[in-house]
Amino acid sequence: MSASAAIASSAVSTLYRIVVYLFLQVVPKGEAKYLIPALYALYVVFSYSAVPVFSHLVAVKKEVVAGESKEKNGHPVTDVSLSETPVVVPLSEPFDWSSALTTIIFSVPSPIRALRLANLAINTLLLLAVADFVAVPYFDDASGVVYTRVGALYPDAAKIVVRYPAHNATDNLVRLSWRQVNPKATSNDAPWRDGPTTNLTSDLDWVQTVRLSGLWPKTTYEYRFHDANNTLLSYPPEPIRFRTFPDPRLSSGSNFRFIASSCMTPNFPYMPFQGRRLKGLDLLADYIWPPEPSASTAPDFETPPDSVEELEGDRPPPPELRLTPAPPPPEFMIFMGDFIYADVPVYFGDDAEAYRRLYRRNYNSPSFRKVYERLPIFHTYDDHEIINNYVGQGNVSREPFPNAADAFSLYNADANYESPEEGQYYYDFRYGDAAYFVMDTRKYRSDITSEDPSVHTMLGDKQLGALYNWLGKVNQTVVFKFIVTSVPFTSLWTHDAQTDSWAAYPTEKASLLAALHTVPNVIILSGDRHEFAAIEYESGDVGHKVLEISTSPMSMFYVPWIRTLRPHSAEVVNKTVEDVIIAEDGTKDVTQYVVEVPREKVIKYIGEGNYKWASIEVDTSDYQHPVVNVEIMIDGKPAYKLEVTGKPVKMQSSTSVGALLPSSFQSMLDMIGLKPGKWF
Prior knowledge:
Layout: H1 3-26, H2 32-47, E1 58-72, E2 75-88, H3 97-105, H4 113-139, E3 147-153, E4 157-163, E5 171-181, E6 193-201, E7 207-213, E8 220-226, E9 240-243, E10 255-261, H5 279-288, E11 330-335, H6 352-363, H7 366-372, E12 377-379, H8 401-411, E13 427-431, E14 434-438, H9 461-474, E15 480-485, H10 497-500, H11 506-516, E16 522-526, E17 532-537, E18 546-550, E19 572-582, E20 588-598, E21 600-606, E22 612-619, E23 627-634, E24 637-645, H12 663-671
Parallel strand pairs: 10-11, 11-12, 14-15, 15-16, 16-18
Antiparallel strand pairs: 1-2, 3-4, 4-7, 5-6, 5-8, 8-9, 10-22, 13-14, 17-18, 17-21, 19-20, 22-23, 23-24
């Protein structure tokens, strides 16, 4: 027993607390779940083996001892000796709070029992917090969660997901009923109509996706559920509303908004008793549907005049009254992968239930429910829906893909748009003057550690062919083209991105990028890196520029100290630039010369933030000046805005009249049996 044990105890405890903090608040690395219990055990051993030595706690008792009397030089002398005996005595001075605080912070062993117990309690609570974070995904299996959401939307149809478990039964019949809604009306007297009936079974985890057909373009509907006896079910408490997409053949310009992000897991950064919270989704819900201010918090100001002319004189209105038009409400959200983290912080196995449990847990989150009950969501997947850095190699039987794909299909993919190839996860869709191609970047990617690098593929032949066909189809038929890839297209991210993103597939990337440069107004959307970046791809003197917006995480970790994005690529292209000099007489002298510019360069980069999403507004109402306005939200606050000016594209005229009909006339046609499919 020595002071060295006290030093070891303090060092181990401090290291333990640092590792716990990093695990619960910074990055939940799986290795820490083994290191943390080991450090805790070492702390207990050292702390109770140490006897702290503090000189100010040791008093020296001095005693004078008289010995025998002796004669010296004829005089009697008594032999007196001084005896020193160390005695531990209680502290007599007032309690030193600063010293106690240091003891608690650095876990220094103390002779004061209360401080020793306080250190033990703190470290034990930290261990319990780690156990809570690790174990909750397993024990909170959300087996009873009931939910519904809207997936793919069409001008005349909608996909709807429902989960309604039946207890003590093998199946459960749930029927959907629906009706048209006039959003401006205060009440709705329209009759309910019978929709499809779902046969929910335990084998499919009580989940099913149905297609509701016979709808009208750009029309609001609502739905609810009944049981087999036609009794209205208690969920949802209020009917769920959605709005169908516009007829794509109606060339009238469009102005809409959508949300894009990726990567989320409940309760990270960790907070006690918040196991079902996804804070990023709470912030997103407040962003899309701001809570109404109460009377006590509403600002005290007079109602501004209805027009500028009502202001005094001809002066412009003050800045506080110069209101910019509010952006349109979001029509949908694209979630770009890592919807669950099957292997973070613990991989509970590759059986079907292990994956399904994590999807149920997310849909059981009150934070997520605020969003998916009001906003249609389209999905792709990435590695953490399967296992970290998964490489499929086109082998759908390779473990753990089958069970991971089963859960992804049930909960997310079945509600997406149909793939050009049956049974695949890549798909495309259109909204107004914008078209989307959503990639599958996991199933077909080849192993880059083998074979000839020139034949490495991210997408596989069929998917790549479907993408090229889509590019040819939308080149001159829509204004903006959005390509969704779960991993970044840019090669500027370093470290593991060099093997897990498109940087690892340079041949296929180069050929695809060459094709994208021939198409105007291409914007790539990506996630995965838990950071935000806007990347510009330069084409040189021929072709069109390409923009990439990479946004994540929706609600997950970011690394605060390490930055892995290079500002530009080493590869360059030649670009002709002009210098224009205007003489005094008004003549212009134009000088052209060629410069080398980076093939890829960063426009904006923001690494910080646990909660990020992109709000993207597409405005083609003026075909000569189409624009995309990008707003990046980080931790619930605006962090960056970018206006992308598109090139005009001549649109084809429409042969459709269905989208032009008023809702009242649509309802009358419905009543006599004329469905919208006859009109477009």
